[in-house]
Automatic annotation (TrEMBL), chain A:
Compositional bias of kind Basic and acidic residues: 119-131, 492-514
Limits of the tRNA (adenine(58)-N(1))-methyltransferase catalytic subunit TRM61 C-terminal domain: 150-453
Gene3D superfamilies: 3.10.330.20, Vaccinia Virus protein VP39
Organism: Diplogelasinospora grovesii
Disordered: annotated segments: 82-143, 388-428, 474-525
Protein name per UniProt: tRNA (adenine(58)-N(1))-methyltransferase catalytic subunit TRM61
An annotated Gene Ontology molecular function: tRNA (adenine(58)-N1)-methyltransferase activity
Cross-referenced Pfam families: GCD14
This enzyme's EC code(s): 2.1.1.220
Function: Catalytic subunit of tRNA (adenine-N(1)-)-methyltransferase, which catalyzes the formation of N(1)-methyladenine at position 58 (m1A58) in initiator methionyl-tRNA.
Subcellular compartments: Nucleus
TrEMBL record, chain B:
Chief location: nucleus
Basic and acidic residues: bias regions: 309-321
Species this chain originates from: Diplogelasinospora grovesii
Compartments (UniProt record): Nucleus
Name under which the protein is recorded: tRNA (adenine(58)-N(1))-methyltransferase non-catalytic subunit TRM6
Length: 525, 628
């Protein structure tokens, strides 16, 4: 069960990010959803006997119970999985409790682990625990037995989920940013992208999905989308590399370990012919010198541009500081980029809540036990006032038992209130007013995004050729754009006539009428 | 997307006034930009996008204006000069930029940076309107001369700060410089234009940020190479028994879409899936012969018909038109002339051959009898044209009405068995009748296929931008989604989405799971998937996971040396929100949650505690009766 043997198996499959199929598969990435924002990546394994002390094979331990992989394999995506009764206690120092505090830790351990190495066994277990030799390792894994509580859901990986659950190495390009960037740099199936600063890989995954239009095949059919990714940091490069392999994305994302400021973007001197560029670098302006159509400096004879020569190239740089932006924009202006625009994305996630306010609601967390409206306040004030008046009257009337009785009355009435008035309706999900509220913590700034476009080169010869093919000067007085009414009518009439010739019965009839000599039908306007 | 402007395609011209003009570029026409002048359309056909042109003065003896590509160095001349000035003394940026207090002689600088005119201190008079008009008519230097004169004749120019001077110059430049930029009409540019300059309500105020979000959260991407069903080779005598069987194993990469944005959403998704634009061809290699002449007429029909709002009428009309023709030979317009397009054009098989791919498709459900996808005409596709020239959308865009989806037997097209006729009878008919016969049979096969595949479910995702209540949409579409499939619903306003999210609230899920809803107790998992909804539970709350509402907004900045700041104004109006979630497959039987985060356990109040902010509280496990 070693990692290296896994890789070739994965290579044959299409990446679960691009086509997860309808059911979970062994040796493939799946996402375990513990709660809404708590997602844990897991590489599912077929159980082949006892594994690391678990009789059921590999097991995911969470604070919501233990889940042997066998229960998560070959089920439809999105399935709710029940927790299983797993003996987590006898395999080590653990108490014999299926859901002790220890079970809460693996989730975070998993993440750390992903950081350290990407072997899949370790992603799913607590690695620090030494597996104890158990009596006679069973050849067949013990079938999992349902526990009486606890569940999780299993989801197919998508770049969005991956971005939420990925092991952080650098600042992550989050979904609001990358969705906007990919839309603006026109990353489409078949595009070739350059990404410099692979970082944590969230943008790599999202862009791989955007440009994907089939894995490259030996026989050239159509241009296949590809992401040329560059990472300078060696450790990050290696982690990213193995991650891409595990995710079946190597055919789509080509990762290179390189200092792009110095060495540019060509792969072995061959141009990737990129249609779009994304730079997540500390000094994008230093990389920009390589992203030009041609170089004027001598000594670059064999140099080819990494850009697609026949298209406008779109670029986006991602920098957190305004000084970086100033320098980048200035460099772009000098290098001939047009439509330079800088934006900043503000993203908000909203939670819907039932705002529970009211005197008659039970005292509970999230419940505001103050009057919900003026009427309620008024009723309460009146009640208090009446009670006070009663109390005053009582104390005036009764002599000695005056201090005792009203007090008693008071306590009993509040108690009664607590029992009778203060309770949930029979439909607690409808209580309170529906409101939305932002997250407790907001990302106020991710980075500044600078967008620009570099038009393709257009030489005198090309212009002359185009002019020869599309001569002008002889065109009739037909105008596109702001037309005066007369010529618009005329155009419309001509169009109708043309349409008529191509077989429409009505207009043919009209034509015939015209030929006969009746007045030409006025245009409909 | 092409790299050069193609004749008869749609393009956008951005004018100095930041107005965008979108139109179809026909060869041998004159393009008029109003006060900025006019030029022959042939001058930008087969030229690159994103270049900025200047309309030159008419040459002697030529009846038209030529264009000049404005080099970027010229576009940025002033900023670069400013930068150069700042660059030497980076420390006193402040003092160089605010020079109002200093007594400066204002100079007008030409492209090379040489001072051409020193402002005459005695220039007190401003130009009159007549003089300006005259200058415009003389119009030399594409308006630059005029702008220079205007600046020179401004009598209070020396009282302006450099900021207001720059502003003044920009204002005059916008008004008089005769420049424009050619932009492609892709989804981004089109939606932006529609939003900012045309009718934003038509596309439900769908901003570019939202288009990106919806596409990503819907996980919309290329859904696999095309797979077609085999042509059953049905003859005219054979009826519905010959319809190709749907193979659910083949169906993959299909997205369900509800689009009330006139097709912008569909276009955005089609762009993401790679079938919005006709396949690219090498622009240069296509130099043999012009495509212009013969193609002018045909593609003109589609857009105008839609613009006139005669979609349905047009459809009928075209049907009859088609009936006349001996089917497919009739239509070699526009793209058909190019070699590549020909290869793409399928030889039409028998009447029951299914033209649609089984993978990588968009299924649009529409509320009217016809889908309103009129904006797709900007990408050369007319959804109402029955005999369409080849276009990748043809094989990947499936449309059906809600009636056909939910109650197909009530739909005439779906439920009427196809006509049959023996070959002899067929031959005896007039061509028109014969055409009609085949057309109806083809339509029947198409409808059957669309409806049956849609009802088979297993969609890879749901994307909506609709005016309809999202709850009602989900009620009928949730059962059709594959497990784990993402849902992304756009709404210009928050309230409908908040109500939708409330259907999946923790309290509701808790109540559902804990057996507080008597109606569901005797239902099987399958029945619960197709939950018809009650007043309390309009949707089965366990069918969606991780529901959340997002919004995002791009704030634009001006980046100029020493003057970098966010733009002062931006579009207001509808903010735009996206609801997201993933389709779950709940386990059968009762599932209890586990968790120990509730400080106190309350029996009665189960599921009623606040679902407030902290994420841990919001786990489905928390609020439900705890048995652990």
């Amino acid at each position: 069960m070693n990692m290296p043997t896994m890789v070739p198996v994965l290579r044959h499959n299409i990446s679960p990010f691009l086509d997860p199929g309808s059911r979970t598969k062994a040796n493939s990435l799946a996402i375990v959803q513990l709660s809404r924002d708590n997602l844990v990546p897991v590489y599912l394994q077929r159980p082949t006997g006892e594994h690391d002390g678990y009789k059921e094979g590999a097991v995911v331990n969470t604070k919501y119970g233990s889940y042997p992989h066998s229960t998560m394999l070959d089920v439809p995506w999105g399935s709710q999985i029940r927790a299983s009764k797993v003996d987590t206690g006898s395999r080590g120092r653990k108490r014999k409790r299926p859901d002790g505090e220890d079970a809460g830790r693996p989730a975070t351990d998993n993440n750390n682990n992903n950081n350290n190495n990407n072997t899949e066994e370790k992603t799913v277990e607590t690695p620090k625990e030494e597996s104890e030799p158990t009596n006679g390792a069973a050849a067949v894994a013990k079938p999992a037995v349902d526990d009486n509580s606890g569940f999780i859901h299993i989801l197919p990986p998508t770049p969005e989920i991956w971005t939420m659950s990925l092991p952080h190495r650098t600042q992550v390009v989050y979904t609001p940013d990358y969705s906007y960037i990919l839309h603006r740099i026109r990353a489409r199936p078949g595009s070739v992208l350059i990404e410099a600063g692979a970082g944590s890989g969230s943008f790599s995954h999202a862009s791989a999905r955007a440009v994907f239009n089939g894995y490259p095949t030996p026989e050239y059919t159509k241009r296949k989308g590809k992401v040329y990714s560059f990472e300078y940091h060696e450790q990050r490069y290696h982690k990213m590399k193995s991650e891409l392999e595990e995710h079946g994305l190597e055919g789509i994302v080509q990762l290179t370990h390189r200092d792009v400021y110095k060495d540019g973007f060509n792969i072995d001197g061959v141009s990737p012919q990129a249609d779009a560029v994304f730079l997540d670098l500390p000094a994008p302006w230093e990389a920009l010198q390589h992203l030009v159509r041609r170089r004027s400096t001598p000594g670059n004879d064999g140099w080819v541009s990494p850009l697609n020569p026949s298209k406008s190239v779109y670029i986006c740089t991602f920098s957190p500081c305004i000084e970086q932006v100033t320098k980048t924009v200035s460099a772009m202006r000098r290098l001939g980029w047009v439509d330079i625009e800088m934006v900043e994305i503000a993203h908000r996630k909203l939670h819907t809540v039932r705002d529970r306010i009211g005197l008659n609601l039970p005292v509970d967390r999230g419940v505001n036990n103050s009057p919900k409206d003026v009427e309620e306040a008024l009723a309460r004030l009146t009640e208090i006032e009446n009670r006070a008046r009663e109390h005053a009257r009582d104390s005036q009337l009764g002599g000695d038992d005056a201090d005792a009785t009203p007090m008693d009355v008071d306590t009993t009435t509040t108690k009664q209130n607590g029992n009778d008035g203060r309770q949930w309706s029979s439909k607690p999900w409808l209580d309170g007013r529906l409101v939305t509220r932002g997250e407790p913590e907001v990302k106020t700034h991710t980075s500044y995004l600078v967008f620009a476009i570099l038009p393709r080169e257009w030489t005198e010869e090309q212009e002359a050729a185009a002019l020869a093919r599309w001569p002008c000067g002889g065109e009739p007085k037909q105008v596109i754009g702001s037309l005066d009414k007369a010529s618009r009518k005329k155009e419309r009439r001509e169009m109708l006539e043309k349409a008529g010739k191509s077989g429409d019965r009505n207009s043919r009839r009209k034509e015939r009428i015209e030929q006969i000599g009746s007045p030409p039908p006025a245009p409909a306007q | 997307m092409h790299s050069l402007v193609q004749p008869n395609s749609w393009i956008a011209l951005r004018l100095p006034s930041d107005v965008t003009r979108v139109f179809k570029i026909l060869p041998d026409k004159t393009i008029s930009l109003g006060k900025y002048g006019s030029f022959p359309s042939n001058l930008i056909i087969q030229r690159p996008y994103h270049l900025t042109y200047e309309i030159l003065d008419k040459k002697e003896g030529e009846g038209f204006s030529r264009l000049r590509v404005v080099p970027t160095a010229e576009l940025y001349a002033e900023v670069l000069a400013e930068e150069a000035a700042c660059g030497d003394t980076p420390d006193n940026n402040e003092s160089t930029s605010i020079s109002a207090t200093e007594k400066v002689e204002y100079k007008v600088v030409d492209e090379e940076g040489k001072v051409v005119d020193v402002l005459d201190e005695n220039a007190r008079q401003t130009l009159t309107q007549e003089e300006i008009e005259e200058l415009k008519r003389d119009g030399s230097g594409a308006g630059k001369e005029l702008i220079k004169k205007l600046l020179l004749s401004h009598n209070a120019l020396d009282q302006k700060t450099s900021f207001s001077l720059a502003k003044y110059k920009l204002l005059k430049t916008k008004k008089y410089i005769r420049r424009f930029q050619v932009l492609p009409v892709d989804v981004h540019n089109f939606a932006k234009w529609q939003l900012e300059e045309r009718d934003a309500s038509k596309i439900l105020d769908l901003r570019e940020e939202m288009l990106g979000l919806v596409g990503c959260w819907g996980n919309v991407h290329y859904g696999g190479d095309d797979v077609y069903l085999e042509d059953p080779g049905a003859t005219g005598e054979q009826g519905e028994e010959m319809l190709p069987k749907i193979d659910e194993g083949l169906l993959a990469g299909r997205w369900l879409v509800v689009d009330d944005t006139c097709g912008v959403l569909v276009a955005a998704l089609a762009e993401r899936m790679g079938f919005l634009y006709p396949e690219e061809e090498d622009d240069e290699s296509k130099s043999d012969g012009r495509v212009g002449e013969e193609s002018e007429a045909a593609p003109e029909q589609a857009p105008t018909a839609v613009e006139n709002g005669k979609i349905e009428a047009q459809d009928d009309q075209k049907d009859t038109e088609m009936a006349d023709a001996t089917t497919q030979e009739q239509q070699p317009p526009a793209e058909a002339t190019t070699g590549e397009a020909k290869a793409k054009q399928h030889k039409r098989g028998s009447d029951f051959a299914i033209p649609f791919s089984q993978t990588n498709t968009i299924t649009v459900v529409h509320g009217a009898t016809q889908p309103n996808l009129s904006f797709l005409t900007h990408w050369g596709f007319d959804v109402t044209a029955p005999n369409h020239p080849p276009h990748p959308l043809l094989n990947h865009l499936l449309t059906l009405s809600w009636l056909q989806l939910l109650n197909p037997t009530a739909d005439t097209t779906y439920s009427t068995p196809p006509l049959t006729a023996s070959p002899e009878t067929l031959l005896s008919w007039k061509p028109g009748r014969r055409g009609n016969f085949h057309r109806k049979r083809r339509r029947f096969a198409r409808t059957r296929h669309i409806v049956d595949t849609a009802r088979a479910g297993g969609f890879s995702g749901l994307v909506c931008a609709s005016t309809m209540d999202p709850i009602s949409i989900l009620k009928h579409t949730l059962p059709l989604l594959a497990g784990g499939a993402p849902v992304a619903i756009y709404s210009p306003t928050l309230e409908p989405l908040a109500q939708l999210a409330d259907c999946f609230s923790v309290s509701r899920r808790g109540a559902w799971a804990s057996g507080m809803v008597p109606e569901i107790l005797d239902k099987t998992a399958e029945e619960l998937e197709r939950w018809a909804g009650t007043e309390d539970f309009p949707l089965n709350p366990t069918l969606l996971l991780g529901t959340s509402i997002h919004t995002s907004r791009a704030r634009r900045w001006q980046v100029l040396p020493g003057r970098t700041h966010p733009l002062m104004t931006d579009r207001g109006g509808a903010e735009g929100y996206v609801f997201t979630g993933w389709r779950a497959k709940p386990a059968e039987g009762r599932v209890s949650a586990r968790g120990k985060f509730q400080p106190k356990r309350r029996k009665v109040e189960t599921g009623s505690a606040s679902e407030a902010a902290t994420p841990t509280v919001e786990t489905p496990k928390v609020e439900t009766p705890v048995t652990a």
